[in-house]
Write a structure and sequence with these properties.
Length: about 120
Amino acid sequence: MGARFEGAYDVDCVEAGGRWAATVRGAGLPASAGHSTPAELVFAALDLLAAHTGMRPAQLRLHPAGGRPIEAHFPPGRSEHRTSTEHGTDWSDTWTASPDADVPGVVCIAARRQSAPRRTTP
């Protein structure tokens, strides 16, 4: 499984006081902070990287920062979904968590974005 995530963006994550924050390693990106759920944190990291690189990443590797474990918040198979509209296009974003087979405590995120069927009003 580790090889599948080669080239993934590494993200340091920490939860403190019920709020989540993330920093993308080596990307020169500011931390994303103040998220109330792990799902919000992952979507924010994906959005931050997309804005910075111009492409939405397909893979992230989440690392616990400050020595606090995070894997309990991302059990194997956990999947989250959201829909959004950007520049007139509807999008469906999904991510799924799995443990990193090579590094204990690290969580791999597989992300997918596809255009959603156009919503119409009767």
